[in-house]
Amino acid sequence: MSLDDTIERLPLKSFTEKAYLDYAMYVILDRALPHLADGLKPVQRRIVYAMSELGLAAGNKPKKSARTVGDVIGKFHPHGDSACYEAMVLMAQGFSYRYPLIDGQGNWGSADDPKSFAAMRYTEARLSRFAELLLAELGQGTVDFGPNFDGTLNEPHLLPARLPHILLNGGHGIAVGMATDIPPHNLREVAAATLALLDDPDTDLEALCRLLPAPDFPTGCDIITPRAELQDLYRSGHGSVRARARYELDDGDIIITTLPHQVSGARVLEQIAAQMQAKKLPWLEDLRDESDHENPTRLVLVPRSRRIDVDALMGHLFATTDLEKSYRVNLNCIGLDGRPGVRDLRGLLLEWLEFRTVTVRRRLQHRLDRVLERLHILDGLLIAFLNIDEVIAIIRFEDRPKPVLMERFGLTDTQAEAILELKLRHLARLEETRLQGERDTLGAERDSLQATLGSDALLRGLIRGEIEADAEKYGDARRCLLVERGAARPLAEADLTPSEPVTVVLSGHGWVRLAKGHDIDPQGLTYRSGDGFLAAARGRSNQQAVFLDSTGRAYTLPVHTLPSARGHGEPLSGRLTLEAGARALHVVLGEPAERYLLASDAGYGFLTPLESLISRQRAGKTVLTVPAGALPLAPLPAHGDDTLRLACASTAGRLLVFPLDELPQLPRGKGVKLLGIPGRLIASGEEKLAAVTVLPPGAGLKVWSGGRHLTLKGSDLDAYAGHRADRGKPLPRGFARVRELSVEN
User: I want to staple 506 with a disulfide (CB 3.0 to 4.6 A). Which of 110, 114, 291, 535 is the partner?
Assistant: First the structure.
């Protein structure tokens, strides 16, 4: 035979496909997904079983975790010790497991840092009392055993869970092509829903959700997902649950008392502090972590003032930090048929009840077999006591007494063997009485077991009683409250910033600064050498500052982020991207809905709300189309009704007053002609629009030319009235070069 004949040849496609599928099935069935019956992954099941074999019951003395891990990986789970220990730690953390399976002593991590647990050589562990729900019936024939990885020992394929543990502690895992995310639930609620299906398998999902309304996380929090969405989640087997921290007020301070599951308090404080350092959360003055053993979660937020809206502030924090968290839910587990699948709540509980019914039936049958075996032996022993002298004689004088006893008294091999193994001390008269009593007791138990096994109603009643007893013994109150809330939304920066009077000052070289109050003199501030005052605007610190450059582009900066006026400020070019050759000319502060007049000295303009000028882009946006050689005039507030009038004056000393409602409201553009200046004069630069102002009803107009001014009121002002785009009328001699128009009250 040649070497080629001993080599198996397979197409690469077939080999890789089989190898991948084998690996995928191993990951799915033997590593990542929990089983519906006991809710455990293989490594978790082996840890619990190994600890029970080591005698680490809840009432016994704990042993070093390294001892447990060594037994697990040496006997049942030949994988890394660190991964095995991490799985063990998870089952001992009260903030990770709703009902911990392991009672740990030592450092097992904290909610702030679950990975901060000590090494396995330092910690000790034993099983918790809750683990009895998984192990109490293990030695009663309830589950199948199989060989371990090397065939030297047997291990259980499943643990005989007395409650749906798959829902109690949940589970998370990522397999090949699928994942599972099962949240924890409250034991009493799960038991109630299970009993409802036990009594009536046709119970609908709506009725089950009244008994089991939502998950119940170990750390306690508020579940804000609407009940309708939760019901859809349990109907489809997948969805999401939103949880929110709980807080209370204490002498003006905000005290966070519970956090969502797997959320670190230190991480939350870092997130809030980062916003405070970035000046995005000025409502808060201080943060403190006062958590201790008595108060595991106590985060203190100190507001700057008692006047702030606490609900609005917390809504912002819920939206921007881990104080509100969404959890993915995917009820995917391995079913009784050995196949993974996503199940709805009703189907999952019905399938578990099927497992529980089989488990209880196997337990009862196992006990019945033991009772029948003992009764059989007792019958033989009582025959021996009734004929004790003859039995003794046969044993003394026969070479092979066993077959003689069997033939003489009609005994079976088992009965004869039991008689031969009797000790002399058991031949006392009282022993016969004890055996009679034991036979009567076991006879009654046999009748009860046979009746229960023969009646579905009695079997269901037994299961019901055990579930009720376990729920009473191990159950507790719900920790997570169901409080329906909409998803939190972050507040705008303007809402978070205190509203204080401020003045924004712009210099000729484009430097900007912020002064508190409205009573400062912008021209009296100190400026850098060669620089000077250009423009100023008064407003509130929670508004947006809009800058208009020489090309008609508008730029926006939050007012509270501007540098203080105690210095020279900062150049706008450091925060904004101005076009080459452009320079900032004007600054505006106001409310977004307020109306403003935009105009250029070419004589065109229009009305627009301030929000049309606001831009989130560093490069701004074009708002006013400015003809070549022209410049924008300072934007004018135009708040009021249709009785407002607009006064326009040209550099040639012509004045026009017309109703403001003759102007259109536009989001952007060149606008319409305000004052009828001939185009040739504008093109040559001989005449331009010098100034404009908005006149309230009954107000007068003050015209400035050089250091002189002219006041026009009543009929004098009406003499210049007309319609938009009229040429206007000449002003008196000496006011040919208008510098400014202002309102005279």
Answer: 535
